[in-house]
Inverse folding.
């Protein structure tokens, strides 16, 4: 199991001794998720945080008309979970699936709690992750409520620069809340303006 990326991620916020890193790694479960395979379904209880080692996941909901609303992409080096479900232990509303063949490291919620009891500095790590998630979702909500589509697209490009040329236009459009046709037109206008 490859743990260097997740240990680097943790190391941004807390310093681990070798034995602490080994204990943390021992709690992780490696999982291969094929393209389009679901890691979590709506109405399931989310019992794991997933850290993306390679590939890309997305978290989304589907409305009553069948339209997907993407809340988050999780490329390599990012965490993803249905936080509401995981914290309340209630069925969630998110689907999480793979946009390409993806390798994740899963941390069960009970193991996360054990980790925080055994190595208290992990409480700081998970608090920071939760705070960053809260800030990100709040910012995203305000962007969707108050910004025009072009600005939402430019923020997407800033937030996910590694995905701009990697994702299908349909996925980007679902994330910023426009149709693929509107996104295509908007991108064409941007290219024409940049050529002038």
């Amino acid at each position: 199991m490859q743990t260097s990326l997740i240990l680097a991620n943790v190391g941004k916020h807390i310093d681990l001794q070798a034995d602490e890193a080994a204990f943390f790694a021992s709690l992780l479960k490696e999982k291969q998720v094929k393209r389009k395979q679901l890691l979590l379904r709506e109405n399931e209880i989310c019992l794991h945080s997933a850290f993306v080692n390679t590939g890309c996941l997305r978290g989304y909901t589907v409305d009553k008309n069948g339209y997907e609303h993407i809340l988050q992409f999780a490329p390599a080096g990012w965490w993803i979970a249905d936080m509401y479900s995981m914290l309340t232990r209630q069925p969630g509303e998110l689907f999480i699936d793979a946009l390409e063949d993806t390798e994740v490291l899963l941390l069960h919620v009970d193991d996360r709690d054990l980790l925080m009891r055994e190595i208290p500095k992990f409480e700081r790590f998970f608090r920071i992750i939760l705070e960053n998630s809260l800030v990100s979702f709040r910012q995203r909500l305000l962007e969707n409520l108050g910004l025009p589509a072009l600005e939402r697209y430019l923020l997407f490009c800033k937030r996910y620069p590694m995905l701009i040329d990697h994702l299908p236009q349909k996925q980007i459009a679902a994330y910023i809340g426009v149709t693929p046709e509107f996104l295509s037109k908007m991108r064409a206008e941007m290219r024409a303006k940049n050529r002038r």
The chain is about 50% helix and 20% strand. The first strand starts at residue 29 and ends at 33. The mean pLDDT is 93. The chain has two domains: 4-145, 147-196.
